[in-house]
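Hey team,

Filing this mostly as a record. A colleague (T.K.) asked me to run one chain through the structure pipeline before their review meeting, and I want the input and output archived in the tracker in case anyone asks later how it was produced. No errors, nothing strange. Just documentation.

Input sequence:
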Amino acid sequence: MDVDLLVIGWGKAGKTLAGLAAAQGQSVALVERSPKMYGGTCINIGCVPTKDLVVSAERRRPDEDPAEAFRAAVVERDELIGKLNAANHAMLERPEVTLVDGTARFVGPRTVAVETTEGEQRITGATVVIGTEGRVPWWPADKTTVTLAQVMSHVALDEARHAGHADILCEQIDGQVGLRGPGNNLPGWDAGRWEEYVQRIERIAAGRHGAE
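Output structure:
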């Protein structure tokens, strides 16, 4: 399946983007791993059910049995979640939107394979929006589940390190610091002082990596 917009994860952002794109006539595929999560975290397991339980607790009369009051509150909460869950699903039941229940994994730059109860379905989006957690299988077990923000931060930090290494090499090659010529923002040390400074930095770096 080829679509204009592929959204992975039915959270607040995902459903909003899907609805706006569909209203503009774009073809949309929205993938959600669990039917119980239509609408995202907030209405299903986050703020809405939590606040509903808090309100029920505040309304409990002193003569009510606490255990019975709690059971009733849970029933009321689940009914509310069910209504909101169904309303979110109905919101995107339109010709431009294909709703897919399953777990997506990338098999190409903008293509995912979705494991559904009916088998694997492949979807390619001209634009892809990731609105859920993902997995990096080769990272340590306690860090394998990540958000897109965490992955982007990781990439940005790696790029900054590489840029710093490249900058150091350039300075060693051309004897210049920065982009504006002689680097007049540096102290006026002689060659011996600079050599001492470089050796000090190298000793610190070697110590951090356990080198002799």
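Quick notes for T.K.: The mean pLDDT is 86. The first strand starts at residue 2 and ends at 8.
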